């Protein structure tokens, strides 16, 4: 609880105490024939002291309740942020699994077949297959072989494969 809240609540409490004390004095009536004014004032001050003592626990309980609500609100905020982080982590893990599955598409046997082909023949066949699979095969070939094959491809197909390969080769999250 901050100091501002305490400053606002303490005057309200004092005003309540004094209002109750004034009400008590007004309701108690006019002093009787055997009672003088000093006794009446002493009784009122004593009653005020008792009242203040009685509501101190209630005021403390109220402060604790307010602090508890504030802590619960902070806990809810933290829980929400943890949930967002967990969602982001799950998304990242999903992306990593997709990337690994992409890389696993091109098995070593298929890669070795394309590695032994002439660049013009390999370019023709890679251009006809699914672009993600063709890019995966190109990534597993030696750089010199990939360059020769891309040199034989149409520029649009080579650009598409290059885009896929560069996206897959990124180490960081693409989002």
Give structural notes.
With 175 residues, this protein is mostly helical. The chain is built from seven helices and no strands. Helix 5 (131-140) crosses helix 7. The longest helix is centred in the middle third of the chain and has 69 residues, at 37-105. It is rod-shaped. The two termini are 40 Å apart.
List keywords for this structure.
single chain, 175 residues, mainly alpha, 7 helices, 85% helix, rod-shaped
Condensed summary:
Helices cover 85% and strands 0% of the residues. With 175 residues, it is an all-alpha fold. The model is unreliable at 1-10 and 32-40 (pLDDT under 50).
What is the count of DSSP helices, taking H or I runs of 4+ residues? 7
The residue ranges in which pLDDT falls below 50 over 5 or more consecutive positions are 1-10, 32-40
**Large-scale geometry:** rod-shaped
**Helix content range of the residues, please?**
over 70%
Order of helices and strands: HHHHHHH
Structure summary, number of beta strands: 0
Give the arrangement of secondary structure elements.
Elements (H helix, E strand, L loop, with lengths): L2 H26 L8 H69 L2 H9 L2 H10 L2 H10 L2 H10 L2 H15 L6
